[in-house]
Amino acid sequence: QQVSESVQKERCRQMPLINNISFSLPFKKTKTVAAIGGKRKITLLQLLQIAAALPVGYRLVNWSTDQYQEVNFHWRRLLRYRWLKRILRYRWLYLRKRLLLLPAETDVRKMMSQFDALLHVPRLSNGTSTVVSDALQCGKLVFLSNIPANVRVYPRQPGVVILDRDIEHYSHVLEAYDRDMWLKIKQGYANVYSRDDVMRQWRDAILDG
Q1: For 176, how many CA atoms within 13 A lie in the half-sphere containing its CB?
Q2: Fewer CB atoms inside 10 A, N or C side of the chain?
Q3: Distance CA 14, CA 193 (A)
């Protein structure tokens, strides 16, 4: 409430575009899609559905404390019923190859090196996030929900895919990701978004307020 209206407008418009990281990663094909965040970002049911729809040989990783703890809790409860063990164990072993649930990772460099594409489909926000900028700076593909904020902020940006169909319809995009695409995404982001320009706009907005 103490921030001027002009600053608030600049923050809403520019926050997703700030270069948030200061490192560069080498290209590495991992055949992994990442979803970062808990239930406010993506539900466990969505994770299961997306993991099952990925191309053969690909997997989905979710870094989240609450999803990780919830699944472990329910898994221990289900295993109390002996008649379910055989069925659930078979299904679980299959899903473990396609879906990996991990606790929140604080090492951004390590996390960014472990996936080819970021899946960002928040349920309870306007969709903009610095994690998208971080991924693009590292040359990663980014799959975004088809909401006005994403369409407005990332028009025709290399590496950005606005989802208007299920993830299974974009298998060819994942499989085509290579060193050339990685470099194109990095250069495309650097050519459009400058940290110095964004900081200058913030400074001007604060002074105007």
Answers
A1: 7
A2: N
A3: 10
Residue with tokens 């489909």: 121
Q: Which residues have C-beta within 8 Å of that of residue 42, sequence separation ≥ 6?
A: 35, 62, 119, 121, 122, 123
**Spatial contact of 170 and 161, defined as CB atoms under 8 Å apart:** yes
Phi, psi of 145 (to 5 degrees): -65, 150
Rounded Cα–Cα distance for residues 73 and 143 (Å)? 30
The strand order across the sheet containing 141-145 reads: 99-102, 59-63, 32-36, 117-120, 141-145, 160-163
Dihedral angle, C-alpha 69, 51, 42, 169, nearest 10 °: 180
Question: Could you give the CA distance from residue 51 to residue 29 in angstroms, rounded to a whole number?
Answer: 18
Give the pLDDT band (50/70/90) at residue 143.
very high
DSSP state of 164: S
Distance, C-alpha 205 to centroid of its chain: 29
> 60: closest CA among 37, 31, 42, 34?
34
Q: Tokens 């991924």 map to which residue? A: 135
Bridge partners of 132?
Answer: none
Structure tokens at 69: 């703890």
Average pLDDT, integer, range 104-113: 87
By the 8 A CB rule, do 59 and 34 touch?
no
* φ/ψ of residue 57, rounded to 5: 90, -5
Q: What whole-number distance in Å separates Cα of residue 26 and Cα of residue 113?
A: 8
pLDDT at 114 over 90: yes
